[in-house]
Amino acid sequence: MARWLLRRLAAAALIVWLVATATFLLVAFAPGDITQRLAEARVPPHAREQWRRAFGLDRPVWTRYAEWIGGALRGDLSTSWTTYRPVAVMIGEALPNTIFLAAAGLLLELLGGVAIALRQARRPFGASDRVLTLATLTAFAMPTFWVALLLAEVFAYRLPVFPPSHMHSPAGELATGWQRLTDLAHHSVLPVLAIGLTGVGAIARYLRGSLLDERGQAYVLAARARGCSARRALRVHALPNALLPLITVLGLSLPFLVSGSLVIEVVFSWPGMGQLVYSAALARDVPTLMGGTLVITVAVVLGNLMADVAYAVVDPRVRLGGGV
Amino acid sequence: MSWRGLPARFRHGIILLGALTGACIAGPWLSGDPTIIVEPAQAGLLPPLSQRWVVELRDGSRTAAQAAQRTETGWVLFGRGEPRALPAGAVVSVQRQVFWLGTDTLGRDVLARLLWGGRVSLAVGLVALLVAVVVGTSLGLLAGWHGGLLDSVLMRLADALLAIPALFLLLLMAASLRPSLTVLILMLGGLSWMGVARLVRGQVLSLKEREFVLAARGIGASPLRIALVHLLPNTLTPLSQDAALRLGDLILAEASLSFLGFGVAPPLPSWGGMVAEGGEVLGTAWWLILLPGVAVTAVVIGAALLADGLGEVARPEG
Amino acid sequence: MTRPFPTLWAVIALALGALSCRAEQGGAPAPSALGARQGGQVVVAIAADLTTFNEYQWAAEAAEAEILDLLFPSLMVEQPDFTQRPPSFGERLATSWEFSSDNRQLTFHLRPTARWSDGRPVTAEDVRFTYSVQKDPDLGAMGWEFKEFITAVEVIDPLTVRFTFSHVYPYQLMDANDGHIVPAHLWSAVPRDQWRTTDFSRLLVTCGPFRLAAHIRGQTIILERDPAYWGRPQPYLDRLIFRIIPDVASQINQLLAGHVDVVRVVPPRDADRVRARPDLELIEFPSRDWGYLAWNNAVEPFDDRRVRRAMSMAINRKAAVDSVFLGHARLAHGPILSSMWAFNRNLPTIPHDPEAARLTLAEAGWRDSNRDGILDRDGKRLEFDILFPAANTFRRDLAQLISADLARIGVRARPQPMEAAAFLARQERGEFTALLGAWTEATRIELSSAWATRSPTQGSFNFISYSNPEVDHLIAAARLEPDLSRAQVLLDRIQELIVFDQPVTFLYERNELVGLSRRIRGANVNAAGLFFNVQEWYWEP
B244: helix, coil or strand? Predict the structure, then answer.
């Protein structure tokens, strides 16, 4: 087990390096650089050359790459070319916002998915099951950005129930304590719904099948024989076993927790990692783009690893190092 | 196996997908050219079920009117703003047209755009799927069969590609390369083969030790023959199920890319691009955003039903 | 009997003393508008966050420049009469100014009561320091070229500063005034080679009607009234809040829902929605933004003037502009905006005449020899891409309308959306055949950067490679001509030549559409800026 873990960690480091290099090369060879915007503001060409030199863009790609890698290994992610603040600080600000949204979304998906699947498994192929199947299928199939736009239009503009964007209202930005918390909660409802709705469908569909499988197992029938009601049997006995494989889903969701849903953040002006890396890519702000990508990649790789480990721990039948 | 004998989900999925695909393929004949611009000042942002007289002019452009009156010298058109008089020589034809799903900001028929956009989205999705399946299956077979170093290298490569935040990379790639249809398909397929490869590899690993495979090896069958005759057919079921779900994912990915502006170029419509355009006029023209989103949802539902159905075919439920 | 006069004089003296004290502090505002009262806040929607508070560290967009204008002083205030003549100026940091007899020197007298937000006085040293930053060739700050004819800025005494010019020309005041004054006492300590990478938000002192209360990155900028402001009137508003909403459609939705009070760029499509609301006001006036279809004059087939003119004739420019801007833009005719004083009212116009276009193209050798519907010459088809930034919906729609028009005369123009930075890169390097571009004109007549032949000293934005020696000669002459009527003659001829050459197809001149809540009173939004008289704005709950 320990050897396997070590090998996987080494592989993980390799992967992170590969991805970082690929991203660096891609942005280095993409047309345009950070000084492009200067042209629009009528900064003359010789001055733009000065800017390029200041950002080191006149040096060869390999030199710049080596510099960045060296810095990253020392823990120095350099300074953003658009805000002049340390990249680590910007990530430190954006990451909690993304984690908050993604975690809340995951929670909604799990709770909603479990509730719906339980309802469906109680009486499979009955009327409510069919309706819920269609509903979860539709929720699962809807494009996230579409759902986000529709939610904003209906619940923020047509019916002014929720705020249409941002994390806080102007008053909420300056508030503290309980007021700040409720302001945040109010602003989170629509984005979390947009993220969660599609996920609820996926989880409900999966759990339904899983619950139906477990329902027929010996231990559940034994519980029923002991006098357990059908509902209780489902909830207390079958559900935990049905949920087990979902652990891997959680592990695989870690990257999503960190990278966030770019589209949701764009639609709702949520200052998260997705928006950070996206605008860095558009502006060719190399340090921010590289820093953000690094963090996300590390999260992905760790998430995969955790999912594999969790699955092995949970299900002793799985051999590590072989068929995983 | 009779049609009735197939699981319900499978049938529903096939019917839904078939109908949508058929409509999209037959689109141009059903509803006309989606790139035809009808004077936006007269025909822009018409709600569904609007009817107008579409007037084709001698210079090739088109305008629209709510009512058209023939006079001795030509036509008088009534619509938004002041009535316009046109000499007979300037007018080629005056025809009544029903805009079943309304028009967009440039006066183009939404139904035509929806069907044509479906062609584009489905084509991109299907071909990208093909790329992903072919590449993924080949690499999965190789990795599973040979094992050892080749296996490790391929799987780590797959992990690396899976780790990449795809949207940003696609964005940068779209900036570097001309986002033509081919490039888009290759990009989407190229970032989608990893799941297929993992699946196939897993199957090969578990099948490798089975008697019939060992027997085949015993009698000296070549690896290629074993792969084609023994391994692939037994992989088909989980593979097709995964493929059906993957189609849905690819269509959603293409829609997201188009929504952000990195998909196909105008005037070619695509569903994602139409949602983005609809988002700009959401307050005044709700149909522009609703319809393409429904279309994407329908296709993905069809694909999911298909996948479920394939699962049931393999493992009949009680 | 007691004499009343000493008491009376005492009272008068006291009153005068009190008033002058208030003037020193810039105390409570004298209500200049009926019913104006203190308090309230206005929420303004902006599309992007401020990248830096130092406008010489980077290049500021228009919206950013307006926010910085609230925090930092300039010497004078430019008036909105720039459309009729080179603009006149009002007092701001400078209370008065005068030219020397030969007009080569300009002396400003600064306000003695001006203070930075840390209490230090604003002096001539700040002006001199600012000039040294603006003129530094290594810094490449925005507005560098406007200091070209200023050779020196000297401190005569702490409240007097003198500019020396190398030439006498119509825009001397404007050039001296360009750019905001920055605090020398804090920022001169930053070494020049670290100027670009320093985080100036840590060194922020301001001197304006408002000061920075909070900056939540990517979300909100909160400005509050600065009680130490020396100007009059002091603002009525307590706070000015800038909400960063990148999507314009969302900005409008939030204006209509009451979450924001000001939207700077109302899309033409939503103009009527705003106008129809009794609680909102739509302000419209000609802006300085204009758009064009650029041809690469160095590359076939657009190196031939006939082909360019044919394109302009084939495109129904009026219909395209009306379709996209719904009446909120006018046709552009030439290199000078039609709202400016120097516009040549007798410019020959290019008519919409597809037949003439076809004939002109035939003259240039382009005919449909193989009957495939597309013109060709020597085996090459007349087809090309029209590049534009994918996110810009106006240019996206224009590209398709233009493409349809050109298709009718046998020219195949393919709209090609591009990612924004890639588009700018291609534009700058001249790697295009045709592109849809837009430009914001300055408040002065400045033709050399876009229309003069490209060289190290001029034509730095002439990426279309346009070159007409006669135009170059006239531009150089008009630039330095102090007599406006003589300059007008030269400018008229330049416009005629450029319109004849059609290096670009001139498309539209947009109107500025500003949406305001009617609860904001006293606002005078005009061509000189959104916040032109923000100190007089007050909030009616």
Answer: helix
pLDDT tens, residue by residue, A156-182: 888 888 888 888 888 888 788 898 899
Tell me the residue length of chain B: 318
Which residues between 38 and 67 in chain B have a beta carbon less than 8 angstroms from any beta carbon of chain C?
39-41, 44, 59-61
Low pLDDT (below 70) residues in chain A: 1, 39-42, 245, 247-260, 311-312, 314-324
Any residues with CB less than 8 A from the CB of C70 and at least 6 apart, and which?
A: C208, C209, C210, C223, C240, C531, C534
Q: Which long-range contacts does A130-139 make (Cβ < 8 Å, 24+ apart)? A: A132/A204, A133/A205, A133/A208, A135/A201, A136/A200, A136/A201, A136/A204, A136/A205, A136/A208, A137/A201, A137/A205, A137/B301, A137/B304, A137/B305, A138/A201, A138/B297, A138/B301, A139/A197, A139/A198, A139/A200, A139/A201
CB B293 within 8 A of CB A143: yes
Task: Tell the residue number behind the tokens 């009137």, with chain if given.
Answer: C233
Tell how far CA C375 is from the center of its chain. 41
Kindly report the nearest CA distance between residue A121 and chain B, in angstroms. Answer: 14
pLDDT in tens, A277-320: 888 888 888 899 899 888 888 887 887 777 777 766 766 655 54
Nearest-by-Cβ selection for B266 from C248, C400, C405: C400
C-alpha radius of gyration, chain C, whole number = 27
Compute the distance between CA of residue B274 and CA of residue B112 in angstroms, rounded to an integer. Answer: 12
Res C468: pLDDT: 93
Beta carbons of C496 and C489 less than 8 angstroms apart: no
Task: Say whether A146 and B296 touch across the interface (CB within 8 A).
Answer: yes
- Coarse DSSP helix, strand, coil percentages of chain A, rounded to the nearest 5 percent: 75, 0, 20
- CB under 8 Å to C364, separation ≥6 — which residues? C301, C304, C306, C307, C310, C377
User: What distance in Å separates residue C15's CA from the closest CA in chain A?
Assistant: 41
Query: Phi first, then psi: what are they for C279, rounded to 5°?
Result: -95, 5
Amino acid at A133: T
The CA-based angle C346-C347-C348, given to 5 degrees, is: 115
Angle between helices A273-283 and A87-122 (to 10 degrees): 130
DSSP at C198: -
Structure-block tokens of residue B149: 């170093």
**Band (C27; pLDDT cuts 50, 70, 90):** very low
Give dist(CA B35, CA C407) in Å, integer.
12
Amino acid at C261: D
CB B135 within 8 A of CB B287: no
Cα separations in angstroms, B244 against A126, B79, B126, B305, C83:
26, 48, 10, 9, 63
Q: Distance, in angstroms, between C277 CA and closest chain B CA?
A: 14
Helix then strand then coil, in percent of chain C rounded to 5, is 35, 25, 45
ipTM of the complex model:
0.81
pTM of the model: 0.84
The pLDDT confidence band at residue C12, using thresholds 50, 70 and 90, is very low
Helix A246-259 × helix A177-215 angle, to 10°? 150
- Distance in angstroms (rounded) separating the CA atoms of residues A299 and A254: 6
CA atoms of A68 and A287, how far apart (whole Å): 8
What pLDDT was estimated at residue B254?
84
Which of B286, B305, B306, B270 minimizes the C-alpha distance to B24?
A: B270
Is C425 in Cβ contact with A33 (below 8 Å)? Answer: yes
Q: What is the pLDDT of residue C33?
A: 54
pLDDT score for C60: 64
- The answer to whether B201 and B144 are in contact (CB under 8 A) is yes
Neighbours of C210 (CB within 10 A): 23
Query: Are the C-beta atoms of residues B246 and B121 closer than 8 Å to each other?
Result: no
